[in-house]
Each structure stands twice: as C-alpha cells, then as structure tokens.
C-alpha cells in the first residue's frame, strides 16, 4: 500500500486517466480504431458514492475500453501491451499500477512500487456484448423478453446505467444504456405488484408478534417491512435501487424520502408494537398516495383498516398488487409467475444474485412457462 494524495472521486479520477493517458495512447497507437471508454459496472465509485474509505481496495485510476466484437480478438492483447508499456506510473498522484493482495486473490490495491517495467493496470478491454453477458447475462439490450428483465438484478442494471462514458466512437454503449435506463412499462407494473404483495404478506405480523410478547419478532417484521417500503419507493420513483450497502444512502435522495423518513424513524425507534405498527402503516400510506398520484390504476383508498377482526392496522396492500396486475396487458408479462417479482425481490443471497449461471437457469425455467 502507499501514502496517497488527498481523495479524489473515482469518476473524476477515471476521467483524468482517460483524458491524460488513455486517449493520447489510443490516438497514437490505434488512431482509426472505433472505441468507447468510461467507468461503469461494479464499484462505489461508479455510483459516485466512494469516499476516502474506498481507497484501500479495488479503487484507483481505472476504466473500461469497449471495442466492437469483430475487433476485440485482434486488438485486446495489442492494446493491453500498449497500456502496460506506455501508461504513466501515476495520474493525479495515484498509481496506475495495481497489485493483488497476497491473502485475497482477486482483490487489488494501488501499487506505488510500479514505477518501471510493465504496468499492471486496471483498464479493462472488452466488447459491449461481453460486458453485458458478464454483468446481466444477456448479449444485447434489444428485444429482451420478460424472463430476461426479471432475472437481471436491479443493482446490476444500475451499475450498467450509472457511471460515465467519456468517449463513444461506436455509439453502442450509449444506446445500451438508454435501452436499459428503466424497465418496460409492464415489467415496472409487475415488479411493483410484487412489492405490494410482499408488504401485504407481512403487515399484520408486527402486532401479532407484539401481542404474544415477542417484541424481538415484532421488530424483525417491522425492519423487513421497512426494507420493502424503501425498495417499493425506488420503483415508484422509477429509480434502480443499489445493493444493501448504499440502499439507505441513495433512498435519502429520492423525492418521496422526505415524506417517508419521519414514519420510518417512528417505527425504528418505537418502544412498543402499537407505535411500531403505526409508523409502518403511515409509511405504506405514503406509498399508497404516491401510487394513486401516478394514475396507473383506479384510485384505491389509502386509509388503513383493521386486519379482519383483530386489533391490528394494515393497508391491505394486496389491493394495490391486484390492481397493478389487472392493469397489465402484455401477454408475456401476464404469463410470468404471479407475485414472484424480480430476482432481487424473491432472492436475497449475495452469491445467488451474483451468479450468472443461476440467473440463466431461472430464465429458462420462467421462459418455459413456470406458473
């Protein structure tokens, strides 16, 4: 590790790497080669959420060069050799060379000892189709079917559409990012329907657990509902949600967050289940009012009501799920498993969400007519 200069946001550092080092080398050694370059994909820096804390691993001057498929095999090794030989040892004071941690293979840190010889750089060279296969399990963004849309993790879609493209001489990555900027309308409604159903399936249990003296259970249910409320808020605002580390941070930037936050706080800090339940019910009412404002279905009563004859207040959130499903006209989306939602709505394992093979298996299962 090295003593670094003051923190610079990774996106700004990547742009300097491109402008000061990569672009001149591309102009010198591949002047007629169409390419794109930018920083997208995984990483807090892609989301603009990196801080000084991020600098200890998998952070530094890095970006991706995108070539056409028919140029990749003939140019990747050549460009890698150019970069290894001619990249400057540092950009903005940060080393362009990296080294793997000895005890954590596959995790990299900046290496200030790399002042001579080949630079172990972090400029990835790929094609758009290869990048999409790696991040989303699809070869292109055109004519994606319903099964593909619901088996692409939401945070991966965010990673592909966030970040910044510094140059696009081909136009392909810009088109892809536009294609994937948000869900098709029917998929959006389907995912929101699943989000409402998740809330409906849990909302009476804050009080039921509390009634039998299980305050811990009541808190666990309320916490699960708070997460579902936040994820549904992202959908209502047409924003892809990040993975868990940044969920609360990015949620705070949503227009609806200011209306939800006081009620979420009331639920979080409640000392007894009735106050906890009231906080969650109030958050769901905010979502219900936002749903009505969107005009996607008939207006639904946003007032809470008792759960059967029991002394628990709920929104009966299934009403919103059913109304959204009834508003879908796309036969392919109507054929999807009812109430399943997207892969990140019915699956919570990090390993599963990062498994492209599992996503493909799910896609085949869903596309084969699962119901």
| Structural class by sheet pairing and helices | alpha+beta
Radius of gyration based on Cα positions? 24 Å
Number of helices in the DSSP assignment: 17
Mean pLDDT: 94
How are the strands ordered across the major sheet? 7-2-1-8
The total number of structural domains is 2
Contiguous runs where pLDDT drops below 50 for at least 5 residues = none
Biggest sheet record: 4 strands, mixed
Quick recap of the structure?
This protein is an alpha+beta fold. It folds into 2 domains: 10-179; 185-329.
Describe this structure in words.
- With 371 residues, this protein is of the alpha+beta class.
- The chain folds into two domains: 170 residues; 145 residues.
- It contains 17 helices and ten strands.
- A four-stranded mixed beta sheet has the order 7-2-1-8. A two-stranded antiparallel ribbon has the order 3-4.
- A hairpin with a 2-residue loop joins strand 5 and strand 6.
- Helix 8 runs antiparallel to helix 9 and helix 11 runs antiparallel to helix 12.
- The longest helix has 22 residues.
- The chain is elongated, with a radius of gyration of 24 Å.
- It starts with 9 loop residues before the first helix and ends with a helix.
- The relative contact order is 0.12.
- The mean pLDDT is 94.
Question: Topology, pairings included?
Answer:
Elements: H1 10-29, E1 36-39, E2 63-67, H2 69-86, E3 90-91, E4 94-95, E5 98-101, E6 104-110, E7 123-127, H3 128-136, H4 146-150, H5 154-161, E8 164-168, H6 172-179, H7 185-202, H8 205-211, H9 215-236, H10 244-251, H11 257-268, H12 273-294, E9 305-306, E10 313-314, H13 318-326, H14 331-334, H15 343-346, H16 350-353, H17 356-367
Helix pairs in contact: 1-2, 7-9, 7-13, 8-9, 8-12, 9-11, 9-12, 11-12
